[in-house]
């Protein structure tokens, strides 16, 4: 099921995933070519350990190859890229859990970026108006928890592992973020 490179260039990521589900290796390679730089960057923002990022990337794309037939797609409001990120985020949480059993937790999280990240700019652009303003006004630690819970679709436990926080802290920050958003939008 080899597909010409030009034909693949015209397909969106959802169409590529559908072809991957039928065993199309060229579609899988094209999906990887398009999404792996973005995915690696996003994972590095959550984890400074390059070895973990590499493992998560490998596990994510292996899962995509194996589970592409399970992708539901835009029929449920999801996108292929969102589905890919959900897989990667869960694999990252799993990697943190595995590492926690074998070593002490890392002494410091990934360094805070000095300029807004591309995902922050995209979020602010897509969530405009009052909601975007309220989101931008949140303290970074509240925005980080809200992003993991709402945008990444992680559970409280997964968010706690991902951010290296106690579950109670995640719940408190989520509550504070909701209150701040409610006040800003009132």
TrEMBL record:
Originating species: Streptomyces rhizosphaericola
Domain RNA polymerase sigma-70 region, chain residue ranges per copy: 31-100
Classification via Pfam families: Sigma70_r2, Sigma70_r4_2
Keywords on record: Sigma factor, Transcription, Transcription regulation
Name of the protein described by the UniProt record: RNA polymerase sigma factor
Domain RNA polymerase sigma factor 70 region 4 type residue range list: 131-180
PANTHER family xref list: RNA POLYMERASE ECF-TYPE SIGMA FACTO, RNA POLYMERASE SIGMA-70 FACTOR ECF SUBFAMILY
InterPro entries: RNA_pol_sigma-70-like (IPR039425), RNA_pol_sigma-70_dom (IPR014284), RNA_pol_sigma70_r2 (IPR007627), RNA_pol_sigma70_r4_t2 (IPR013249), RNA_pol_sigma_r2 (IPR013325), RNA_pol_sigma_r3/r4-like (IPR013324), WH-like_DNA-bd_sf (IPR036388)
Domain of life (superkingdom): Bacteria
Transcription in keyword set: yes
UniProt record similarity statement: Belongs to the sigma-70 factor family. ECF subfamily.
Keyword Membrane included in the entry's annotation: no
């Amino acid at each position: 099921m080899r597909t010409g490179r030009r034909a693949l260039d015209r397909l969106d990521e959802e169409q590529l995933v559908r072809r991957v589900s039928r065993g199309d290796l060229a579609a899988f390679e094209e999906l990887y070519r398009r999404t792996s730089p973005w995915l690696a960057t996003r994972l590095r923002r959550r984890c400074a350990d390059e070895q973990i990022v590499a493992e998560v990337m490998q596990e994510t794309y292996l899962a995509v190859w194996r589970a592409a037939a399970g992708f539901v797609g835009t029929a449920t409001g999801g996108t292929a890229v969102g589905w890919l990120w959900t897989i990667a985020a869960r694999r990252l949480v799993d990697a943190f859990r595995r590492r926690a059993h074998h070593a002490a937790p890392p002494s410091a999280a990934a360094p805070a970026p000095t300029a807004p990240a591309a995902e922050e700019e995209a979020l602010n652009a897509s969530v405009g108006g009052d909601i975007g303003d309220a989101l931008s006004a949140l303290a970074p630690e509240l925005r980080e928890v809200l992003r993991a819970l709402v945008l990444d679709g992680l559970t409280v436990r997964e968010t706690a592992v991902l951010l290296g926080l106690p579950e109670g802290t995640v719940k408190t920050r989520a509550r504070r973020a909701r209150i701040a958003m409610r006040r800003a939008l009132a």
